[in-house]
Design brief:
The chain is α+β, with helices and mostly antiparallel strands and 394 residues long. The protein has a five-stranded mixed sheet with strand order 2-4-5-7-6. Strands 1-3 form a two-stranded antiparallel ribbon. Helix content is 64%, strand content 11%.
């Protein structure tokens, strides 16, 4: 009701403005005469248009809706011409031709509305047909629409959506395949060892060795499951941790010391470098340390003996903190750089070592950094690999 009143008020205002044009030309009486014709005509048209807009379902398809609007315009034109012809007291001959012109204009308007409706409906049908194909499983969808209007934008948005769905499904299939591959080896080993123990085919002195092998594979499976759950939670935006003021110098030193035994075992030197003593970030310390563990472990894994891993942190323009983990390995192959932060994207270990990683470490690191409002990327390096990420400064 409020919208109808607003439209009626707008119609009266427009009628007054148009009628006012006649005042300086023909005087006050001409203004009043025009207003007597235009005001009721505008109000009635506004009311009917509101009814048509609110009862679109009753009218049916777009063709009928546009035709109804065109018919409303034609009727308004015909009535207006008839009333003005009567007001001017012209001859019947002049009135006939005015009516003829009004009728012709109305027919042209109806034809134009039908043409526009036909093309609009064709575009809508194209979008609808594409969505039906998507619902049936097709992902190779191209929508042919004419023009560059809102329907063309809608078609482009639908194509973008379908492309995202296709990429998400492809990623899901790859994830399932990768998980299946990473589960197959330990599960097969566990099955064989369990059957061997059950059948008593192992010598007594080897029983403890086989139990240790079972324990190793069980821990690997548990770590993989934990990583999958964490990655799924992060991807779904299920983040509930709080952030606080974190002194990066202390955290980096603590993390490097925790990773030193693994680095020493592999003959890799690892150290932390802090640019200044005031480098601090607004972050969750446990999650930030997890990112550092993943990056440092990955760097050690891909660095040959006698190589080094350096962890650096510095403030950037006072608005952010940038952390870097750099190693002296052979770097990441050009073909792997674009997908290194994707789940289960494992490049070959240059050093020939493997820690059984499932390929989720960098993906989890990216998800955690982005959840903090930062970003992570591979920086150019003359040798080795440099992984950088930013965090809000504290």
């Amino acid at each position: 009701m409020r919208r109808t009143a607003q439209r009626v008020g707008a119609a009266l205002l427009a009628a007054t403005a148009v009628a006012a044009i006649a005042w300086p030309v023909y005087g006050r009486q001409a203004f009043l005469d025009c207003l007597k014709i235009l005001a009721p005509l505008g109000v009635s048209t506004a009311v009917v248009a509101e009814v048509l807009a609110s009862q679109r379902a009753w009218l049916g398809g777009l063709r009928r809706q546009l035709s109804a609007v065109a018919l409303l315009g034609a009727v308004q034109l015909a009535v207006g011409v008839a009333l003005f012809a009567n007001l001017m007291f012209v001859s019947r001959h002049d009135a006939f031709f005015m009516a003829l012109i009004a009728g012709y204009a109305g027919l042209v308007g109806l034809a134009a509305a039908a043409l526009v409706a036909r093309r609009v409906v064709a575009d809508v049908d194209a979008v609808r047909g594409a969505l039906v194909k998507v619902g049936e499983g097709s992902r190779d969808v191209q929508i042919a629409v004419a023009g560059g209007d809102e329907l063309a934008t809608l078609a482009a948005d639908v194509e973008t959506m379908v492309d995202k769905v296709a990429r998400a499904e492809r990623a899901r299939r790859e994830l399932v395949a990768a998980v299946s591959h990473d589960l197959r080896t330990p599960v097969t080993t566990l099955q064989l060892v369990a059957e061997g123990l059950e059948d008593g085919i192992f010598e007594p002195e080897r029983t403890r060795e086989k139990l240790g092998l079972i324990s190793t594979h069980v821990r690997a499976l548990g770590a993989l499951i934990d990583d999958l759950l964490e990655f799924s939670r992060l991807e779904a935006g299920d983040v509930h941790w709080s952030t606080e003021h974190v002194q990066l110098g202390e955290l980096l030193e603590e993390t490097v010391e925790a990773m030193r035994p693994q680095a020493d075992r592999d003959g890799v030197a690892v150290r932390a470098e802090i640019a200044g003593e005031t480098a601090a970030a607004q972050a969750n310390p446990e999650q930030l340390q997890r990112v550092l563990f993943n990056l440092i472990q990955n760097a050690i894994r891909h660095t040959p003996a006698d190589g080094s891993v350096v962890v650096r942190a510095e403030s950037v323009a006072g608005r952010a903190v940038e952390v870097e983990v750099a190693d002296t390995g052979e770097g990441i192959a050009e073909g792997d750089r674009d997908r290194v932060f994707e789940p289960f994207a494992q490049g070959a270990s240059r050093s020939g070592r493997s820690d059984g990683a499932a390929g989720l470490g960098l993906a989890i690191a990216r998800a955690i950094v982005e959840a903090h409002g930062g970003r992570i990327w591979l920086a150019d390096a003359p040798a080795g690999t440099r992984v950088r990420f930013t965090l809000p400064s504290s």
